Amino acid sequence: MPQIVEFPERPYVGVRGTITMTTFGLVADRIGEIVGWLAERGHTPAGAPFLRYDAVNLPEDRLVVQAGVPVAAPVAGEGDIFAATLPAGRYATVSHHGHPDRLAGVIDALLKWAAEQGLAWDMTEKDGTEHWGCRLELFRTDPRVEPDMHNWDTDLQFRLAAPE
Questions:
Q1: Distance between CA atoms of 158 and 53, rounded to whole angstroms?
Q2: In 27, 40, 113, 156, which residue has its Cα 20 to 30 A from 5's Cα atom?
Q3: Could you give phi then psi for residue 159, rounded to 5 degrees?
Q4: What pairing do the DSSP bridges indicate for beta strands 135-139 and 129-132?
Q5: Which residues 6+ apart lie within 8 Å of 84 measured at CB?
Q6: Whole-angstrom Cα distance, residue 30 to residue 26?
Q7: What domains does the chain contain, in order, with CATH numbers?
Q8: Number of C-alpha atoms within 13 angstroms, CB side, residue 10?
Q9: Inter-residue contact 89 to 6 (CB < 8 Å)
């Protein structure tokens, strides 16, 4: 069952790319590289790595997505690895245990639940593209420890619009 959780600002480092559903790995597969980059600089992740969806245009199958790793305190970026902050605010959140290819149904259920609750997203739509303030998929399972994707745990956190 989805919950509404208040989160503070959360610093992270990440990379961004414009991809399609079939080229997801171009961004998602860089999470390990970011973790290694942090380790070389004496930093450890301060939470689960995530994908942040900035823009979603499903009719054209184009997405602007970030792969990010949270850090305890801001870290300067380098090259195409940048430093940023997830915005504070109220998020609708739900957890999923199982294969990531089942997330689409979980996302649909979360969107439907929010509509039934009369909640508004921190999202604007322009020319068929959804621009999200903060829409996250957090990967709580380390694939090196649990290679079976059917046993993975993923959290969704979608930022709600600020109350009027």
A1: 10
A2: 27
A3: -70, 135
A4: unpaired
A5: 11, 12, 13, 14, 66, 68
A6: 7
A7: 3-159 (3.20.80.10)
A8: 20
A9: yes
AA letter at 132: W
pLDDT tens track for 121-147:
999 999 889 999 999 999 999 888 999
Q: Is 153 exposed, middle or buried (0-12, 13-18, 19+ CB in 10 A)?
A: middle
- The structure's pTM equals 0.94
| Residue 109 token pair | 């259920």
Q: Tokens 């998602």 map to which residue?
A: 28
Cα–Cα distance for residue pair 120/72, rounded to 1 Å: 30
The two structure tokens encoding residue 3: 């919950």
Separation between Cα atoms, residue 94 and residue 89, nearest integer Å = 16
Token pair, residue 45, equals 């992740």
Encode pLDDT of 48-88 as tens digits.
999 999 999 977 889 999 999 999 999 999 999 999 999 99
